[in-house]
Amino acid sequence: MQTPYFFGYGSLVNINTHSYRPYEKKTIKGWRRKWCYTKLRQVPFLSAHFVNKGQISGLIAAVPDNDWSALDQRETGYHRTRIPLKLEEGTSKIEVQIYHVPSENISNKKPTKGIILSYLDCVVKGYLEQYGEEGVADFFATTDGWDCQAFDDRLKPIYPRHVELTKSERHLVDYYLKFSNLT
User: Fold this and answer.
1) SS3 annotation, the chain
2) Which long-range contacts (CB under 8 A, 24 or more apart) does 46-51 make?
3) I need a labelling partner for 70 at 20 to 30 A (CA). Which of 7, 99, 124, 175 fits?
4) pLDDT tens-digit map of 53-103
């Protein structure tokens, strides 16, 4: 049986939020990130959606013993989809699954709260640690849906896996938010 892997493109890039090891940086083609409004929460979800010419960077990590239960619980509200992926040129494809918000849960109604900054901070810190500032810039550039308000919960974080940022890391997040389409 082949070892299953997940592809993380949001908080799963921050290795301090999970214990899946080993992990590897990877870029997948045909996908982009997107903030989506759903029927499930009052805040937007970060999801992935298929686009022909898109690509996003993130991490892949093995799911030991094919035990998806803990990861599925963490990613409540998402569905898993298998995507073929080669680890290196000339190797066979491995089974990788990506979590995304299913179309039946997407809503056109904007939520009452915007993007939770404690969540975004966690994601950006992961990209900064894995890919450097260039990776942070790429995260913002390859993510759609910056058309809602940010919800500043940094003093009382709502996100259960929130992380502490240094002053310079907070400034980095705020800098990129200023230049996104966030209103």
Assistant:
1) CCCCEEEECCHHHCHHHCCCCCEEEEEEEEEEEEEECECCCCCCEEEEEEEEEEEEEEEEEECHHHCCHHHHHHCCCCEEEEEEEECCCCCCEEEEEEEECCHHHECCCCCCCCEEHHHHHHHHHHHHHHHHHHHHHHHHHCEECCCCCEECCCCCCCCCCCCCCCHHHHHHHHHHHHHCCCC
2) 46/9, 46/10, 46/11, 46/119, 46/123, 46/143, 47/78, 47/99, 47/100, 47/101, 48/9, 48/98, 48/99, 48/100, 49/100, 49/144
3) 124
4) 899 999 999 998 889 999 999 999 899 999 877 666 656 677 799 999 999
Relative to beta strand 45-62, strand 93-100 is: unpaired
The separation between CA 113 and the C-alpha centre of its own chain, rounded to angstroms, equals: 19
CA distance 162 to 139: 18
The two tokens of residue 133 are 């500032």
